[in-house]
Design a protein that fits this description.
The relative contact order is 0.25. Helix 2 crosses helix 4. This protein has 4 helices and no strands. The termini are far apart. It is mainly α. The chain is globular and about 30 Å long.
């Protein structure tokens, strides 16, 4: 499953992503290019909600 599909299924991760700057979003999306399995992508997206708040 893609990054967007996983993000759509995780409210906390989606809110975290929406609160990021454009540069932060771009950097995060670039990291997804190294992910090659559904489980890995799900774990990656689920981990977004654990990131510290943006200031």
């Amino acid at each position: 499953m893609s990054f967007v599909m996983n993000l759509a299924q995780n409210d906390a991760a989606r809110k975290k992503f929406q609160s990021m700057t454009d540069e932060e979003k771009e950097n995060l999306i670039n990291k997804t290019h190294d992910i090659h399995s559904r489980d890995e992508m799900r774990s990656f997206v689920n981990g977004l909600s654990d990131l510290p708040p943006q200031q």
